[in-house]
Amino acid sequence: MGYLSDHLGKERIIAAPGFNRWRVPPASIAIHLCIGSVYAWSIFNLPLTRAFGVVGGAAEDWALSDVVWIFSVAIVFLGLSAAVGGKWLERVGPRMVGVTAALLWGGGFLIGGLGIHLHALWLVYAGYGVIGGIGLGLGYVSPVSTLIRWFPDRRGMATGMAIMGFGGGAMIGAPLKQWLLTVFYRAPDYLGPAANVELITERGRRFAEVAGSLREVIVVGASDLSSMIVPGPAGVYVVGTGDTGVASTFLVLGVAYCAVMLAASFTYRVPAENWRPEGWSPPSEREAAERMVTRHHVGIDEALKTPQFYLLWIVLCFNVTAGIGVLGVAKTMMSEIFGNALPEVVDSAFAATYVLMISVFNMGGRFAWATVSDYIGRKNTFNLFFVLGIALYLSIPLTAQQLSTSPAVTWLVIFYGATMLIFTMYGGGFATIPAYLADIFGTRFVGGIHGRLLTAWSTAGVLGPLAITSLRARAIDEAIVDLAGEVDPAQFEARFGAGVDQLAALVDAKTVTIARLMELAPAGTVDPSATVYNSTMWLMAGLLGLALLANLRIRPVDPKHHLRELETEAGPEPEPEPEPEP
110-124, 428-442, 460-474: which has the minimum mean pLDDT? Predict the structure, then answer.
């Protein structure tokens, strides 16, 4: 540890006089672009749920609910490691934290790739979720307090720069991952059109004779073509003979991300004690009071004794919950809502581009909203997030309902626009919260306090995916039962090789889906695919309402929590009278 401290420690990276502070943001953005690729996780959902089937889900393949939780575990450990790493960061500096994050994030990919290759789900959770998640948290906090100290004159812009890259990680990660999956993809053995292959159904699975033995097969119908990882013909494919390419993609990304993050970490510098930008002086007492900006400092442990910390925790938790569940299944959601209604427009490539555009707006929102908060104040910025967010989330079920009855590109445009605006505010919340903390608790310990607050992200990382997967699963089950009741029993048995009385087994084996039932449904039957996320959107709007109430109750910290033995940035001054606590 002594060797590392000598070469990576805080004392070794103090900037010399005349150092250009604008050299620090590129390193922060580079690290966040790497770890921000976690937001493109939904690119992996489809290939991970088709490890054996490749062109469709096989009975032994993981379910969506299994792999979505890998993303959740990574976010949980992001928040937990940030809570611990924030205090460590204040002691050892951003370079050592950044190097550690690079090794953990890259190593998490490598271990996760091995788990995928061995089809050992626990190893994917341990690698990408736990080890990679710790790397995420350390990489996330490494630049925040550093940039706030370099830019005390522009706190919102500084935190926007620090966290902008995280929102943009999927902008690079989504197309990169999609391209790598295509490079390493290998289609399974094709037996021909379904009409030319004799099929047998046992316990919900489909089988065909191949080289003298029965092999499990996937029957790809016309409704399944748009969801194929790489386009191919409809017909019968042999399970276990292809490769989605996801394991190899993990290995390549692990090496690449580790290299970039290591290079960026070694460019970090911290300002000398009492450094200020040339020509800048702290705001006057009146200016600070108008924007609820403190001129004092609150310690990390002391901050946890204030109601302001917990109100901000609620604000961040519910704002993140409302967006993170959608992020985890973004590509899947786009395909399910619009893939069947508008198959000529929404294919796998379109859904992947949707993930890319989420990243673009998420990244842009982080910088734009954080900068806006320098002018209108942090509290007003969050109030605006929640009022607009409630309206936008409520608009999505209405759009989906219209789409299910009268499919048109207009509804796709409305949905696209609403979700993109939502994600500017989702990203803007992350970028603005460190400046909000600095306004409330001072800048001296903002890195450590920010780390503790990120436990709200950990909680949201569980609540968001849990809500969206459980409510989606319930909606899909109900829709399948309703559709099966509309389908002619003889047609059902001819299509799936078993009667409606075996519906549960057929669904468990992934033989029966909404899309395949719609092929048999009577003319005029409304496709329920577009509405399976409606209940989730109503819940998210409610959570934003609670976050709005919490934000409205935030007031300046009582002076009893200030560190009296420390001088403020402007020097000693009389303590102002506190506003009454709510």
Answer: 460-474
